Amino acid sequence: MHLKRWITAIVAIPVLVVLICKGSAAIFACLIAVISVLASWEYFYIVSNGDKTGILKPIPLLGAAAGLGLIAAALYSAFEVMLLVLLFGLIIAALLSMPPYRRSWQILEIVSTQVQGIVYIFLSLSTLVLLRVGQDGLAWIFLVLLVVFLGDVGAFYVGTYLGKRKLAPAISPGKSVEGALGGLAANVVVALVFKFLLLPELAAGPVVIFALALGIAGQIGDLFESELKRKSGIKDSGGILPGHGGMLDRIDALLFAGPVAYGFKLFVF
């Protein structure tokens, strides 16, 4: 498992770095769109209890289309358009739910699942696009990615070798308090190193708070996805990333950390 994780990382990370560094904001938005669609497919696979065609139904497909509209609007920082996409997506989903309602009221569960999926995946990841098009956008994207992903690595290995006390046994028995603390320590170290090298204008104190907030949000995101999978009896969201599981397994922490990072940049830094 460890070997597969490292091989996947060695292959995928250089490609990701090149796409982010060499590509424009539009290319980055396209990358986020692809990741969002893959994660959304896996999300509906989970919430549909293993139905791999879950996203291909009309209401989930509408949700994916609305989600892509969110990302496109984020590319131009068009907040009003983002709000309207969310609201009109809900209105159209409500309309589509009415004909089949007479056969089964469970269609409402599909609507609520779709709305959750749009917010959970597409809206969350659109905050990364908003970060990318803002001032020092490239540096901020790498700061968030490094803090979140290396914090995840720290949590994984500290938890694997030193973990004793269970963090949330009912949700994810493999996670430990020691692993969570190790992850937060890695979050802070990575953020401070990045700050001194590439964003020296930022004060160290707020950066530490920022790193802890990202780390905590990321761990909540990880546990939330575990809740979804446990409810459906599914171990991994997919197998697209050997050693890591599916796309949603890989970005679950980022889904909650991205909005927190955008909030910090908007209101703190």
Question: Which structural category fits the helices and strands?
Answer: mainly alpha
Q: What's the domain count?
A: 1
Percentage of residues assigned to helices: over 70%
Number of helices: 9
| C-alpha end-to-end distance | 39 Å
What does this molecule look like?
It is built from nine helices and two strands, in the order ααααααββααα. By secondary structure, it is mainly alpha-helical. The protein has one domain. Strands 1-2 form a two-stranded antiparallel sheet. The longest helix is centred in the last third of the chain and has 29 residues. The radius of gyration is 19 Å and the shape is globular.
Please describe the topology of this protein.
Elements: H1 2-22, H2 25-47, H3 58-75, H4 79-101, H5 107-133, H6 137-162, E1 166-168, E2 172-176, H7 177-198, H8 204-232, H9 247-267
Antiparallel strand pairs: 1-2
What descriptors fit this protein?
269 residues, mainly alpha, two-stranded antiparallel ribbon, 2 strands, 3% strand, globular
Write a short abstract of this structure:
This protein has helices spanning 2-22, 25-47, 58-75, 79-101, 107-133, 137-162, 177-198, 204-232, 247-267; strands at residues 166-168, 172-176.
